[in-house]
Amino acid sequence: MKMISRKEACSISKVTLFKVLIGLLLLQPGSQRLRAQQYSVSDLAERIEEFKKDIRGPYKDIRWFCTDGSIRAPKDPCPEDIGPGVQHARYKDVVADIAKKNGIYLGQILAYHTSEEFWNPGKNFSRLKQYQIDQYLRTVDNGWINRKGQFYRGSVQAEDEAAWGQTFYKNILSEEENLRKHFFLIRNSMKDIPYAEDENLGQEMRSRSKVISDLLPSFMDLRVKIHSAPKPADIPDVERFLAQNRKTLNPDLTKQFDDLIKVMKEFHRPFDIKSLSGYLKKLKNEKFRTALSGFMEAHAGIEDKAALIQGSSEFMWEIRQGLLTEVTPSDRLVMLEISLKLEEVIFRYESDWKPENLRDQLKKICNLGLASAASGYLEVWEWEQLVSALTAYEKPSLTLEELTFVLERSRSAVEWSTSMFKAHFEEVSELYAGFEPLAHGFVDDRIRGSLVLQLGRAVGELGDYIARESNLVNKVMDLKNQSSVRGLNPGYAMGELVVVEGLKEELEVSSDKIYVFQRPPSDLKPVAGIATVAEGNLVSHVQLLARNLGIPNAALSDSNLEGLKKYAGTTIFYAVSNKGNVILKPADQMTSEEKALFEVKSRKQEKIAVPVKDIRLDVREVLNMRSVDASNSGKLCGPKAANLGQLKKMFPDEVVEGLVIPFGVFKMHMDRPMPETGGSYWDYLNAVFREADKMREEGTVEGKVEEFQLEKLKTLRGAIQSMTLDPDFVRDLETGFTSVLGADLGKIPVFLRSDTNMEDLKDFTGAGLNLTIFNTVDREKILKGIKDVWASPYTERSFKWRQKYLLNPENVFPSILVIPSVDVEYSGVMITKGINVGTEKDLTVAFSRGAGGAVDGQAAETRLITVQSDLLLAPAREIYYNRLPETGGTERRIASFEEPILNNRNKADIRSLATSLREILPRETDSDYKGAYDVELGFRDDKLWLFQIRPFVENKRALGSAYLESITPKIRKDKVIQLSTKL
Description:
Layout: H1 6-27, H2 41-53, E1 59-65, E2 71-72, E3 86-91, H3 93-102, H4 115-119, H5 126-140, H6 158-173, H7 176-189, H8 201-215, H9 220-228, H10 234-245, H11 251-267, H12 278-282, H13 286-298, H14 305-322, H15 329-349, H16 358-374, H17 380-390, E4 397-399, H18 400-433, H19 442-448, H20 452-470, E5 475-476, E6 486-489, E7 491-500, E8 513-517, E9 529-532, H21 541-549, E10 553-555, H22 558-564, E11 571-576, E12 582-586, H23 592-603, E13 623-624, H24 639-650, E14 659-661, H25 663-670, H26 681-697, H27 702-722, H28 727-741, E15 750-756, E16 772-776, H29 779-791, H30 796-805, E17 814-820, E18 826-831, E19 843-849, E20 861-865, E21 870-874, E22 880-883, E23 891-894, H31 904-925, E24 933-940, E25 943-951, H32 956-959, H33 962-966, E26 976-978
Parallel strand pairs: 5-12, 7-8, 8-9, 9-10
Antiparallel strand pairs: 1-2, 1-3, 4-26, 6-10, 7-11, 11-12, 13-14, 14-17, 15-16, 15-17, 18-19, 18-24, 19-20, 20-21, 22-23, 24-25
Protein name: Phosphoenolpyruvate synthase
Pathway: Carbohydrate biosynthesis; gluconeogenesis
Pfam families: PPDK_N (PF01326)
């Protein structure tokens, strides 16, 4: 046996130990995933299941964390000379790795982190929101990833977490800007982050009832009652249900019931106004102390729940406004806590306020709306846009038209409040839903735990009353609260119903189906009909295409979407009238008149021919945009360039310089030999369409024909994208950049906008179907972008829209408009008429922050602007927006909603522009066009910039349909209704 030295033994032991450690690491489940790339969704889902089964959940051990930064073992507490420190668990290595690589923070321990890294506005407060969704998942899934780890003693110290919460909120509330910009988020987070001993009983009650109903479906009816309109009478109902089913329940489920009943009794314990007196000792601000004392005195011993709700909502509003005065962070925290208490009071007693007449119903809606605004579900300025309509109950009577306007503004309060939750929480909900499907319920739970639920129900009751008075009744399957469904543009369709939850940008759709979207994709392909929960805005490309093509389109609520899910896969008939009432029913219930609509349609497909007889393909040089005008549209170039050139003549200071790459340059390149084909690119394109016609003549089904065309066009698209640009053309382009745009190619950021001859036809808009290259500087990227734009008409989406509505889709010629980027602060669309509301003389505008606003379906600030006033139809609800740096590309920024986008000066400029366009454009273009215009524009430093103008095309067939007219009720708008009318 060989003897080894002590030195050798030590050396070997180190090597051996290293190998052993590596081996152990590799034996850890999934440890090989501790790598550079992000964890996949399946990886994360696997980890979640592992944590649920682990007695330590996401944690690996417990340590003391001392104030000097040292970490000590559990039995070795921090010495007194360096402070007490805190004790809690450490995250597993894989949990820390997931946080580092994916930005997903599981099982967060508050005391582990500083206030600054937890708040983190630069990451859209992701850690804070993830903490909230984590807490939600724990309540609905028996601890979730802490299913067993919740019994890991010492992993989290409740007193340390609450102390951290106190410090966190005092830090955040010390900045007035945080309250102005992030009031909703701060106040809402207080329902999850511990900072005091009190619990959110309403949320706990809903969570416990959901857990039981998931395990015991027969409990669902009671769960719905508890979620939507909790009442003290629910307690004996639950006790009775438990007694009837106790023998069949396991001990764990029995305990779940016992715990639920306990929470319900605590929740429904009669509110004692004196319970607020404890806050008087905590408040230092004399003004707040006096206000709280006054509120308590005014409502002491009050039995009238309507008066209590009214007083509570008013005091909540007073709190929200008072927080922005010079108040200490401690007092701000106390007043927010009082606000949360009062919201719970309103939530608890709202069902006891039973309006006897119309006036009382309007008053209830107004007070619930005020409380919602006081809770941050509406911004202060947004509530100020609604309050004049919602206080109409002070009048003795209203006409039916006036009462309908009150309903619309009340409905706006519900929709704007709901969209506030979605704007803040949808991103994190979708992130977690990828690996934990239960996360889909988070946003809905947030809304149901707020006053928005009660407000929506009260507005729905008003809507039902007005529907009866006006005969404007929807007939949408067997849905409840049908008054929340409203038509956006008229049309009719028949097809399979598809219900799509969440946002799915890559969704494959079919032109013969009807889709109900949570939120429609920005590049929607042809469909038979659509309905959306988040309609985005009235002037997005999707909405304009639907309006242009007579595709029925309606807005509905989340609960309506939920109710339609059971009909998914059913063939239905769907119609939206000219006044916005909606019919949606099974196809086998169609009348003979409704069936005849589709018999006629199948015999006569109304398609449009793209005019090509006047097209100029001989012009093969880059043009100065100043040299083209409206007369060149569809001849030298598309309407974007032609119309912008026209606007440059009319409004030289509001339009940038530009270059135009005409149709002839594209055709010149298409006439060159296409590799591996024996012909030109143009020959290949026309051969595809000839072969398609031959297939149809031979009886090939249209689906197979389309599949053939798309595959061939994919090949063509790739060939165009890889073609070599003509050197003379490139030199011509370089000269144009220098002489017209004032900088060398590759030195100035530009937009490349596809501009085809198929756009802005008399009966077809083509809005948003082809490619725009955003803010690009690099020379090679610009040259590549030109080829990408030329190839874009042959993408699946663009081709399908053309194929469906055009007679000669092969004769599409793209020109390109090249304009320098303008880093606008906000941008959007103006339609020179009222859409859905307003008149032909009004303006519908939609603006979003940053560049590219409103056109892609963003939840934009939408207004009806009249000569003397403007009406806010919807506030902006997009968290992210793009700015255009000089270095190219886009810079994503995070928005807040505390101020409107458009100011009074902007609105005056928009009115002035619209007047000029209506007066000057027909004269300058020698046009007899009498319709409205669709204008894209933006503002920077309050200066207006014009980017595009086109005719606003509506579907005359849908607007004039005899059938749609027949289902449009005749409404007596001047009918007077006394507000004392009994309900």
